[in-house]
Design a protein that fits this description.
The chain is an all-alpha fold and 78 residues long. The protein contains two helices and no strands. The longest helix is centred in the last third of the chain and has 45 residues, at 33-77.
Length: 78
């Protein structure tokens, strides 16, 4: 009985391993707190650079649009 039980255990373990390999988990990988903070810092730094570049490029256009708006408002009142 012991020999038969041991063989069944071994075959059961092999079957489990094969099943796990064939059907991987859909659970997302765990990300530690330190890694999350580091990723957030790099992301915020990238966004800061992008927003500064965009502001420098669009700064003149935004000011011109604001001036046009005040001129249109003055003409509508008078």
């Amino acid at each position: 009985m012991n020999r038969r039980k041991k063989i069944n255990q071994i075959l059961g373990k092999k079957a489990k391993k094969a099943n796990l390999k064939a059907n991987p988990s859909h659970k997302p990988r765990y990300i530690s707190k330190a890694e999350r903070e580091k990723a957030q810092e790099t992301e915020s730094a990238e966004l800061g650079e992008v927003s500064q570049d965009a502001a420098a490029e669009n700064g003149g256009a935004e000011e011109a649009g604001a001036q046009e708006g005040t001129v249109k408002d003055a003409g509508a009142e008078g």
